[in-house]
Amino acid sequence: MTENNDPNIDPAGTTQHFRRFVDENPAPEEPARRPILPIVLAAVGAVLIIAVIVALVMAFS
Fold first, then answer.
1. Distance (Å, whole) CA 53 – CA 49
2. What is the pLDDT of residue 44?
3. CA angle 26, 21, 19 (to 5 degrees)
4. Alpha carbon of 10 to those of 6, 13, 14, 61: distances in Å?
5. DSSP letter string over 1-61?
6. In angstroms, what CA-CA distances link 16 with 3, 5, 29, 32, 36?
7. Angle 36-44-51 from CA coordinates, rounded to 5°
8. How far apart are the first and last CA of the chain?
9. For 7-25, what is each residue's pLDDT tens digit?
């Protein structure tokens, strides 16, 4: 990093410019994520249904 030892530079001025830049150019928001719980529950339900069908087929054959 470079150091500015010039006494004529106002360090608060650069901070104000930075804050104005941040206020005028907000960061884009991340898109909302899809919840994973319904997908997990659907997968567990599908595995359970297949297990029940396999158990019934094995029990009656």
1. 6
2. 98
3. 100
4. 9, 5, 7, 87
5. ------TTS-HHHHHHHHHHHHHHSPPPPPPPPPPSHHHHHHHHHHHHHHHHHHHHHHHT-
6. 19, 19, 24, 32, 42
7. 165
8. 78
9. 666 655 677 777 887 788 7
d(CA 45, CA 52): 11
Residue for token pair 């297990």: 51
